[in-house]
Design a protein that fits this description.
Layout (H helix, E strand, L loop, with lengths): L2 H4 L4 H8 L7 E8 L4 E5 L2 E7 L1 H7 L11 E6 L5 E7 L5 E5 L8 E6 L3 E7 L6 H14 L2 E7 L7 H11 L5 E3 L8 H5 L7 E6 L5 H9 L23 E5 L5 E4 L14 H5 L1 H7 L16 H7 L5 H53 L1
Parallel strand pairs: 3-5, 8-9, 8-11, 9-10, 11-13
Antiparallel strand pairs: 1-2, 1-4, 1-12, 2-3, 4-5, 6-7, 12-13
Length: about 375
């Protein structure tokens, strides 16, 4: 099989490639992201890639940098095992979050062109349905199909109850209980891994993502660490994002664990995750009801009647406020960028007007 086809190249990508004048460039897929350097799979094999100076300059004014899973335009350097990345093909899907520690809204791309996103949470003290709701919003916003994996089932006595709880907060989303230690649920996971299909894993630190990669790949390609017994928290085992070709077909992206998931934007994910609350809210007296202390609030009534979990409503309101704040930050950042553009262009316009007038007077 063609090397690129193993890594997800298809007739659709071929058609998209042929629509543009790519010159002497060739397609390649980013398999690992090390910041300034990337590993890129080509028809001849894997090589190192770096962005061209022109591409770096263009990205300084905005836009997401290349990510694992991206298809890129690559110029291979003759006689060397490296190449220059000149562009990124339009992404089919993109998994992103708000970049941590930034005052302005900035997108951090986690992986691109992913078909299925495994949302992993371990069945120990780290188990948290409210966190899973946030991961689901990220998945739906990204345009990928989410699948929930409840890992480390060997550490839990009520795995079935927790699976049922997850099914309630994620209607229609597959939920699988797995244990790499006891080889439980492997056939359910591998059913998603087909030729050309890209699957990514995400979750908090220590939830078992790297263990799942090794378990599925039947290798020790990813390092793992034990979690702390005191609080079931793990350390970052995976330090970079990497895409693996699996022996049974399909591709898997492992990503570093997240201490905290900050959502970047909302493209209908909030409404899709909280469909129950959105449906109940249609019965509120006021269309802009915040479900706090307004009169005739159907959502608050549902909580009082025991039809809706109070914690789920709290998370809905918290996430809604967070997304609105992110939108405001993004709008402020855009206004600032527009002002900077004007401040640069204005002296140029004044200088141009001066010379035009002088040439006219001297003429």
């Amino acid at each position: 099989m063609n090397k690129l086809m193993q890594y997800g190249w298809s007739a659709n990508w071929d058609q998209a490639w042929s629509k543009e004048d790519r010159g002497l460039h060739n397609p390649g897929r980013i398999t690992a992201d090390f910041g300034q350097k990337y590993k890129v799979m080509t028809e001849e094999g894997e090589i190192w890639g770096e962005m061209s100076g022109k591409m770096k300059h263009a990205l300084q004014s905005g836009g997401a940098y290349p990510a694992v899973g991206d298809w890129v335009e690559l110029q291979r350097l003759e006689g060397e095992e490296r190449g220059i990345i000149h562009g990124v093909m339009e992404r089919k899907t993109s998994i992103s979050r708000q970049k941590a520690g930034m005052k302005s809204a900035q997108e951090q791309l986690i992986a691109a062109n992913v078909d299925i996103l495994f949302l992993v949470t371990s069945l120990n003290d780290d188990y948290n349905p409210r966190r899973m709701e946030r991961y689901l919003i990220m998945a739906w916003n990204s345009g990928v199909n989410p699948v929930i994996l409840l890992s480390k089932a060997d550490l839990c006595d009520d795995a079935d109850l927790k699976a049922a709880e997850m099914e309630l907060i994620a209607p229609g989303v597959p939920v699988h209980v797995v244990s790499a230690l006891e080889n439980m649920g492997k056939e359910m996971v591998t059913a998603y891994l087909k030729d050309g299909v890209t699957v990514a894993l995400t979750g908090s630190s220590g939830c078992g993502k790297s263990t799942i990669v090794n378990w599925i790949a039947e290798s020790a390609s990813q390092k793992t660490q034990d979690i702390r017994e005191g609080d079931s928290r793990g350390r970052h085992t995976t330090t970079h994002r990497e895409l693996f070709l699996l022996p049974q077909g399909g591709l898997m992206v492992d990503t570093p664990g997240m201490r905290e998931l900050q959502l970047y934007d909302d493209d209908g994910g909030l409404e899709q995750v909280f469909t129950d609350i959105e449906a109940i809210a249609e019965g509120c007296r006021f269309a802009d009801c915040r479900h706090e202390d307004e009169a005739d609030c159907a959502v608050r009534q549902a909580v009082e009647n025991g039809e809706l979990d109070e914690k789920r409503l709290q998370n809905y309101r918290k996430t809604q406020r967070e997304l609105m704040f992110q939108m405001k930050k993004e709008a402020r950042a855009q206004r600032k960028m527009n002002r900077m553009d004007r401040s640069v262009k204005e002296p140029v316009r004044r200088k141009s007007s001066y010379w035009n007038k002088r040439m006219h007077d001297e003429g």
